[in-house]
Automatic annotation (TrEMBL):
GO terms for cellular component: plasma membrane; proton-transporting ATP synthase complex. SUPFAM superfamilies: F1F0 ATP synthase subunit A. PANTHER family: ATP SYNTHASE SUBUNIT A, CHLOROPLASTIC. Pfam families: ATP-synt_A. This is F0F1 ATP synthase subunit A. One of its GO terms (biological process) is proton motive force-driven plasma membrane ATP synthesis. The lineage of its organism: Bacteria, Bacillati, Bacillota, Erysipelotrichia, Erysipelotrichales.
Length: 204
């Protein structure tokens, strides 16, 4: 979070001093390209009326999740392998879903629809559980599998030399899947499902 904060402050200063009539380059080009990609994707899912309030949130969420999921590549424990982190992120989305539902139905209609029939309460709570557990489970399982790979390669290496030389040979291929591919896919899935669930409560 500290690195992200420093980068955003630095990028903000670059944007403030950049010439709007000149072709972007360097940090400005990278940030503009990334934001445009996220915004173009969100526009294909959510109507334009959501742009002002929700696109910045989902852009920030997308950036955070990508960095969090890929942090295992540089030796850190992925924050999203901790359920408290994924639950906190999902709680924000859950509150936005309920806010849009209340805005559409009215408070009294929303409360009545939530408690009667009683099974409706389960459908209201299900996104909070499914979104948080999906992201947490997939990232944690990848971390556990990579830990087992390093333990196993270390065990095999010990028969030849007291150094895990097989790990750096075998692990990079698996890191490409469990950290890079799976991390990016889970980010996309979380953002996509969150945006769809919010939009479904206020489609008009």
């Amino acid at each position: 979070m500290l690195c992200m904060g420093i980068f955003f402050v630095y990028a903000g200063k670059k944007f403030a001093t950049a010439d709007p009539t000149a072709r972007p380059k360097g940090v400005v080009l990278v940030v503009e390209t990334g934001i445009k990609m996220v915004y173009d994707y969100l526009k294909s899912i959510m109507p334009k009326k959501f742009e002002k309030n929700y696109y910045p949130y989902f852009a920030m969420l997308f950036i955070y999740l990508v960095i969090a999921n890929l942090s295992g590549l540089i030796g850190f424990e992925a924050p999203t392998s901790n359920y408290s982190i994924t639950l906190a992120l999902t709680t924000i989305t859950f509150c936005l879903i309920q806010f849009n539902a209340i805005k559409k139905q009215g408070l009294l209609s929303y409360i009545w629809g939530a408690v009667w029939p009683p099974t409706n309460l389960l459908s209201i709570l299900s996104p909070l559980i499914s979104l948080s557990m999906r992201l947490f489970g997939n990232i944690l399982s990848g971390s556990i599998l990579m830990y087992l790979v390093y333990q196993f390669t270390g065990f095999l290496s010990s028969f030849i030399i007291n150094f895990n030389f097989l790990g750096p040979i075998i692990a990079p291929v698996l890191h490409c899947y469990f950290d890079i591919f799976s991390g990016c896919i889970q980010t996309l899935v979380f953002v996509t499902l969150s945006s769809i669930l919010i939009m479904m409560e206020n489609p008009d």
